[in-house]
Model the fold of this input.
Amino acid sequence: MPLHVERVSHRYGPVAALDSIDLDIADGETVALIGPSGCGKSTLLGILGGLLRPSAGRVTLSGALPADSLNPFTYVFQDFALLPWRTVEANVALALEHRVNAAERRERVAAALALTSLADFASAYPKQLSGGMRQRVGIARALVVRPAVLLLDEPLSALDAQTRELLMEDLLRIWSREKSTRVYVTHNLEEAARLADRVVVLSRRPGRIREIVRIDAPVSDRAAIIPDMQRKLWALIRDEAATADREVQDV
Ligand SMILES: Nc1ncnc2c1ncn2[C@@H]1O[C@H](COP(=O)(O)OP(=O)(O)OP(=O)(O)O)[C@@H](O)[C@H]1O
Ligand SMILES: [Mg+2]
Done:
């Protein structure tokens, strides 16, 4: 669904985290959010999904929620956040409890497991799985409610380079088969260049939109332009990142 962010600002007490963010995201679009550490990316994602109330401004969805969408927003986090005492299937089914009948629950869980290549792991426990498989569970759990908007906060950051590569391929395949609108926070410029339709570059704190880079080639046909895109994105955030790196942290 189309998502509208209007003049969103956020403060944590004296700390200004975000300053007047305006952004319209189209239905089915994938927007990556990049910017230096502490610039407010997770804060913005929290505001989008309603985990946090912004100090000012508002976020709205336009149109009616699709009939099969049980939640307008769901999250995928870096640390997977799975329940260790539940099987893969039971983790994925969590958000469906007391909301759909048994037949619909089975159908939704089976579809989410198939989409994330987890069908053979339904009865496994999280500790039996690799990091990549755990994050596939995190993704299945978010998709099982068929959210209008999928919010991902550095979903691949805890994974090694090869696993991250596999998951990037998986995400592209998954996204060609489901219709959510997506906001994808990352530090990794290759992920932004490969996965997104547009990349929103935030300045260091308080986060403001510094530039929006549209990536014109379809995601299936980008290999040739990705290095150039990464260089362009790095040129945009380099100075901000260097300044943020030299800053004394107020923990
Ligand atoms: N609950 C909180 N209370 C006070 N300050 C906070 C709180 N959460 C975040 N902040 C501060 O707000 C700023 C933005 O934080 P946020 O986590 O949104 O940044 P980020 O861009 O996601 O950073 P990173 O890239 O490190 O994940 C940071 O300076 C952070 O220290
Ligand atoms: Mg963050």
Observations:
- The first strand starts at residue 3 and ends at 12.
- Residues 41-42 surround magnesium ion (ligand 2) (CB under 6 Å).
